[in-house]
Specification:
The chain is mostly helical. The protein has helices at residues 2-16, 18-28, 45-61, 66-82, 90-102, 107-118, 126-135, 142-155, 167-181, 187-198, 211-222, 241-251, 265-280, 318-329, 352-370, 373-388, 394-404, and strands spanning 205-208, 231-234, 284-286, 302-304, 309-311. 57% of the residues lie in helices and 4% in strands. Helix 3 packs antiparallel against helix 4 (66-82) and helix 8 runs antiparallel to helix 9.
């Protein structure tokens, strides 16, 4: 009797409890995670490959789900980036083929096709970007807005001398304002960029590399109408003919003319930069980073003026200017305060705060050497706060604290 009861209970569980089993299976099913980008999050290629598989499953379950298709494509794109493969790879193409089959006339398909074609030598990205602009949703995501901003920026049409805004400029301004009003970037990124621009001379050219200085500079100019005299030049865009020609025209100089055969791209880039610098006659600044080795040959002519490097062929007292920026132009008070709003998705970018430490540690040293203990102590306290406020491991924090105390190079 007891054995029958057990068997009956098992049968009831198997037949009557099918819903329970399904629910349990659903709980065990791995759910995909949002792909927020390499700038925001830090993951390895295995993580992105896993997310690609999970998002593809979701897209195939609902073939009209544009978000799922885009997330699968983004996961594949970042996995390829980490493998240093920027072209039209098999994994990305397979997803694009499925998008074309299921959502051919969508914003997502055209945007992903644009991102693919722009990375391929001899690609034809323009038609896809134009179509994406026509189909874009009202509440466009940050990454998508940045992609279309890059397209508009590279076209060179936003550099038109005519003060009447053209279609491209209107789109650019709209995207920048959208990024600002939707709080796409944490305030500390915008404040860092604003401080950087504050320390520059009027009508300067600011060569930048990377998302943070590029897009945040545009937001400050287009959404806040601040520092509009500065010309923000993404270094990588100089390799795009339409942008380079438009920039030279805007600066009132001739386009760069190739007069010799180059065996190394860095040599070409050096001559191109020298052409712009020498002929524009404008103050020249570079965003401080080691991520563009093309400017290595310029490093002997770069002088730290606080939060940016100034280009000069003549030596001068750059520390005096850096101190002036610290004392009268930069707002450093905010880095002494806690992060009142925790922005987990931007955790990976909080290192920008540490640029203050790297760039201003020599200023602390200069204050100490000149006997100005008041300003040395004030700046030291601010920079120590910038280190403490980050979520870095303690052993990494010690490295920056040692840098401030001049215990390491």
């Amino acid at each position: 009797m007891k054995r029958k009861t057990i068997i009956t209970a098992v049968v009831i569980l198997l037949l009557g409890g099918i819903g329970t089993i399904k629910a349990f299976t659903a709980l065990k099913k791995e759910e995909p995670q949002e792909i927020r980008g390499i700038v925001v999050d830090r993951h390895d290629s295995v993580w992105y490959e896993t997310q690609q598989r999970l998002w593809l499953q979701k897209a195939e379950d609902n073939p009209t789900d544009e978000h799922a298709w885009q997330q699968a494509f983004e996961a594949a794109r970042y996995a390829d980036m980490l493998a240093e493969d920027w072209g039209r790879t098999q994994r990305k193409q397979a997803i694009l083929d499925k998008m074309k089959e299921n959502i051919p006339n969508s914003f997502t398909y055209n945007l992903c096709m644009y991102m693919t074609e722009i990375a391929v030598r001899g690609g034809n990205p323009d038609p896809y970007a134009k179509q994406a602009l026509q189909l874009m949703p009202e509440n466009i995501a940050r990454k998508d807005a940045e992609t279309l901003i890059s397209y508009l920026w590279m076209s060179g049409k936003t550099l038109a001398k005519d003060k009447t805004p053209n279609v491209e400029q209107k789109h650019l301004t709209k995207f920048a304002q959208h990024l600002y009003t939707t709080n796409a970037y944490p305030s500390y990124l915008l404040r860092y960029t604003y401080n950087s621009l504050q320390g520059m001379e009027e009508n300067a050219i600011y060569f930048v590399n990377g998302d943070v200085p590029g897009y945040t500079s545009l937001v400050i100019q287009e959404a806040l109408n601040q520092h509009t005299d500065k010309i923000i030049v993404p270094v990588s865009f100089l390799f795009v003919d339409t942008y380079r020609k438009a920039l030279c025209d805007f600066l009132g100089i001739k386009d760069f003319e190739v007069k010799k055969e180059y065996t190394a791209m860095d040599d070409y880039f050096q001559d191109l930069l020298e052409h712009i610098i020498d002929n524009s006659k404008r103050p020249i600044y570079f965003f401080p980073t080691d991520s563009y080795p093309e400017i290595d040959s310029f490093k002997k002519n770069l002088y730290n003026e606080g939060l940016a490097f100034r280009y000069s062929t003549k030596r001068y007292d750059n520390m005096a200017i850096a101190k002036h920026n610290v004392e009268t132009k930069y707002n450093l008070q905010y880095i002494t305060e806690p992060n009142f709003v925790y922005e987990e998705q931007w955790k990976g970018s909080e290192r920008i705060q540490l640029n203050y430490v790297v760039m201003l540690a020599p200023v602390v040293k200069s204050y100490k050497e000149s006997g100005d203990t008041l300003h040395a102590d004030q700046l030291m306290r601010s920079l120590l706060s910038a280190v403490v406020q980050t979520s870095l491991p303690d052993e990494e924090k010690v490295k920056y604290i040692n840098l401030l105390n001049d215990k390491q190079k």
